[in-house]
Hints:
By secondary structure, the chain is mainly α. It is built from 26 helices and no strands. Helix 14 (about 250-260) runs parallel beside helix 16, helix 24 (about 420-430) packs antiparallel against helix 25 and helix 25 (about 435-450) runs antiparallel to helix 26 (about 455-470).
Amino acid sequence: MERRVALSSLLLTLVSLLSVASDARCEAEMSVSIERPLAVALDRLSPAQQELLEDLLDKARREPMNGLRRGQLGMAYETNGYPRAALKSYCQAEELDGQEPKWPYYQAFLLAGRGELQRALDALDRSLLLDAEHVSSWMWKGTWLIELGLVRQADDAFSEAKGLGLGWAATAGHARVLLHQDRSDEAIAILEPLSDESPFPSVFQLLGRAYRESGQLDEARVSLARGKSAQRIGWHDDWQEAKRAYEVGVTPRLQQAQRLILLSKTEQALPILEALVEAKPNDERVINTLSNAYVLMGREDKAFDLLRNALEQFPVHYRTHLNVAGVYENRGDWRLALQHIDAAIRLNPTVSLPYEKKGLLLQRQRRLVEALDAFELALNRNASDPQLFARAGDIEAILRRWLDAIEHYRDSIRVDPSYTLGHIKLGLSLARAGQFEASREALSVAAALDTHERDVQEAFAYVSGLEQKHHSK
């Protein structure tokens, strides 16, 4: 009898603990009501967004015990700008469907975005209990553990990701751990070969940091220049991609099409863009993206018809004129191309791109002084593009005004120290000005950047020949 009472007491205790653990999954600010899906004010949304959210809310209400419906509502809330409602909906989805790992996974991201990393990790661990082979879960776990200073545990997470087949990102994660443990030499030993195999900016950022911490400052400067866009280590996350189905409006679908084009999947982007141009026939972003897609698919006539039709609409965007100019330029009709570039300048005289296009076209026509004026006008509007400085330097070099060319090329690498062609052109111009030692220094930096090996070798050979001629005089 006493044993039965003890067992009964133990069961009650376990039930109580499980209930507390279940409540702790979701936000402390509001208790979860799985019977009532959350509704939010939709006034600020577009009609298409309102329609989507109202439809998903209605489905969740009609199937109040369906976890998938609640999770779909959460994804729509998150992608359309309602993170708090999304978090509570994901909590409800997890309560209703405790076997779906995505619901605690999505909670983890929203919690991390609020700076609640420990709660995010707790949610991530619940997801991993359901699917321990989801690579992204391990990578995010390692990333957030590092931010909490738990580097040994982070390394275990990155090792799990590597064991599941993830490549360079998991290796880079391990290098981050080594850097946090002040083991920069070991990190360098990993990152140097990784930078050859996977030359991503984030790898060069880590390598530059490792060089700096080991006292190799010259190597650090070059590596950090190559990794100038210091984004975090990235990897494909299929569960996050699933949310894109709930993005509504022109911009998300346009961005989806542009991503496909960047991935050389233009044929998949075309139906998205063609549907968008029917819905938004005056949206210049859609028109110009679709025209570019047609060109990539070899359908230039269709691109040209689309652009000419856009020129008859109001308002006309300056980029449309630039794209029409490009078609005429490809056909060899430089006069009409220049007319459309000038029309683009009249429509928007404050941006640099039309002036740059004009300079390039004038340079092709050997109208060098006019081309230089156009590049200078572009630089007046955008002094952060290294190629613009280099284009002006090219004209000065053609005109054999070496000191002016040198100054422009120096400006190009001040703006972007990783701009290899700027270093090469600077080196060649310095040599033409008789400054051979400075020339070789510039070319040595270009060689260290390791992006244009053949160009650098040819430049060194040219400078050597030029120096021999100089000394033989």
